[in-house]
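Data availability (excerpt). The following record was deposited with the supplementary files.
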Amino acid sequence: MKRTGEKILSWIGNVINILMVIVLGFAAISLSSLGGDFEQELMNELQNDPAVTGEDAQMAADMLGMMGSTFVGITWFAVIVMIVGTVLGIIGAIKITNNAKTAGILLLVAGGGMLLLTLGTTLIQSVLLIIAGIMCLARKPRVTVNNEPDPNSNPQP
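Predicted structure:
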């Protein structure tokens, strides 16, 4: 049975996922390398401001540093989740022709896991993988009895 729709949806979802992994990976690397320099520049600017006391400047710099490191950690977590989802999605897309049930389960796990663990930020690619997984599980091949053609199909002249 041809499963062109499932293949197309799963590969589009995987390509979008790969692009997002690349973008988020570069963003996480950039953010982690900027951390110390940005915090030092902020501390210098706050110390030069006469309206801000030394304690307030230190507290603001510490809070910004903590928020920055938390954001970098969350970004790396999202990258790891998306890499795992991409691997499962690619395996599922490859298995569609041979074993549609296994492929559907893999695609559903990849899409649902990414959607839940990234709190919906992977919405587009997750929905594409979930739809492809549901189509793999829902579509059944036509059954023939005693090698007779299906009566519902159009007869060939």
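Summary of structural features: The longest helix spans residues 4-48.
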